[in-house]
Amino acid sequence: MGDGGQRGPAAPDFPARTAPAVRSVAELDAAVTTCRACPRLVAWREEVGRLRRRAFRDWEYWARPVPGFGPVDAPLALVGLAPAAHGGNRTGRVFTGDPSGDALYAALYDLGLASQPTATHRGDGLRLHGVRIMVPVHCAPPENRPTTEERARCGPWLARELALLRPGPRAVVALGGFAWRVLLPLLADAGWRLPRPRPVFGHGVEVTLADAAGAGRLHLVGGYHPSQRNMSTRTLTPAGLRAVLHRGARLAGLDTVAPPGEAG
């Protein structure tokens, strides 16, 4: 399918029209990488890929939408924000090749949820155990700030990704207030009953949601995003990150997860 015409990947309704029709996570990931529905984000991600940062001048940047990462039967989902301009937008994998990813994957490794503590490129051998990482916005946005319209346009991808996980996540950790605000309406639309008033984001905040029949349970956990700023200012410490990930893993039923360890 080409970019031209009103029905191609550059059409504003491409995510809303395409996401509900895919039947597997692999198919969804492939469709995501073709999307050109947000002109500002397309222009930015491709410009970054052309100009490159001096430290990465020998890289061939991915410069496309970045799909989720991790097993499709994961009982724990982590939801972030968007790919970093010189991280996921360069490497083609979420939280890979940037300081946020350095912090996140080190914490997942410490808990036994990742096969190695570092993530440098798509072929580095990294595997996740029982965890899938997702983003509400699949293209790197200028200044890490997608617009409300861009967030809404990209939302159908995340909604469908959550729906396609089998048998479905038992816990979701929202890494940052942006992810929390995106998730609440998506979960409500998927049939999960939200408490009133709607819960407010905070690090360590937990909410248990029931489905419409009252039989299923989904645990939503809030955690600060492991951004370079949050980590450098100690708003979030390595110990604090491990603790919230450990809590999400236990709520998801990953009983073999390692303890979060001492403060760091």
Automatic annotation (TrEMBL):
The entry's keywords: 4Fe-4S, DNA damage, DNA repair, Hydrolase, Iron, Iron-sulfur, Metal-binding
Ranges for domain Uracil-DNA glycosylase-like: 67-245
SMART domains the UniProt entry points to: UDG, UreE_C
Pfam family membership, one: UDG
Homology family: Belongs to the uracil-DNA glycosylase (UDG) superfamily. Type 5 (UDGb) family.
Name of the protein this chain belongs to: Type-5 uracil-DNA glycosylase
Organism encoding this protein: Streptomyces chisholmiae
Lineage: Bacteria, Bacillati, Actinomycetota, Actinomycetes, Kitasatosporales
